[in-house]
Amino acid sequence: MSEVTEVDIATNLEEVRQRVAKACDSAGRDASKVRLVAVSKTKPLNLLRDAYNSGQRAFGENYAQELVEKAKQFGDDGLEGLEWHFIGGLQSNKAAMLVKSVVPYGKLTIETVSTLKVAKKLDNAMSANFDGQVLSIFVQINTSGEESKSGVQPNEAAALCKQIVDECEHLELKGVMTIGAPGDVDCLESLVACRDDVAAELGIDKDTLEVSMGMSGDFEVAIAKGSTNVRVGSTIFGARDYSNNKA
Fold it and tell me: Cα–Cα distance between 14 and 135 in angstroms, integer?
């Protein structure tokens, strides 16, 4: 993660922000209500610093060890206000490590909780290491039905969210998340419907729950459908190199 890569991050980031703003305007939505998460998995630290220097604070990572290393480096460098979104598959045996290693260096949000087991591992890690604080999570929903995609089934989402809220006092359910099939608008609409079901199950206003959907190829459509959290990577940072993945 030390190599220097020539990418004009500032320009790319500004273009994406303008596209987000335009999509919000077209949908009659407030652009300040949509979070842009810059997905920086496999990207070198110099590119993340460029994004940080251009005002970006929310970054998304897919690999636990890579996130741990980046969070520590940025923390040691004294960079403040960082929000780290974990958007990869999280094994229960890595949940405690991720919490203990990242929370001291910035706000951590886990967007890919799909089982009560993982939720309880995260809850226990917060209780043991950061008692009095809460960890933000999203429940991941498999809206496409693809076996290759993680996530709870849509008809099981509300029950899982209720269990987490009832049994995990150190977690804050921020909303629901999906990685839908590319170009399938039905996946986006399904997630919004799931959010509404979860809100009804919890007896809360649906607008208090976030909807995390939309990536480089479809974030404008996702915003039109109600996304509050878009995850954009290659459009900002360029094509990815997976040769040195750190799970």
Answer: 30
Rounded to 5°, the CA angle 34-9-232 comes to: 35
For residue 180, the SS3 value is coil
Tokens of 66: 């890579």
Q: Which two tokens stand for residue 202?
A: 């919890």
Determine the Cα–Cα distance for residues 138 and 69; give it in Å rounded to an integer.
Answer: 23
For 60, 109, 220, the CA distances from 143, given in Å and listed in that order, are 21, 21, 18
Q: Which of 99, 91, 186 is nearest to 141 (CA)?
A: 186
Beta strands in 145-226 (DSSP E): 171-177, 210-212
Q: Give exposure, 162-194, as e/b (b: 16+ Cβ within 10 Å).
A: eebbeebebbebbbbbbbbeeeeeebbebbbeb
Residue type, 40: S
Entry pTM? 0.94
What are 49-94's pLDDT values in tens digits? 999 999 999 999 999 999 999 999 999 999 999 999 999 999 999 9
DSSP 8-state class, residue 88 = S
Taking residues 32-36, what's their average pLDDT? 97
**pLDDT tens-digit series, residues 163-204:** 999 999 999 999 999 998 888 999 999 999 999 999 999 999
At 231, which amino acid appears? R
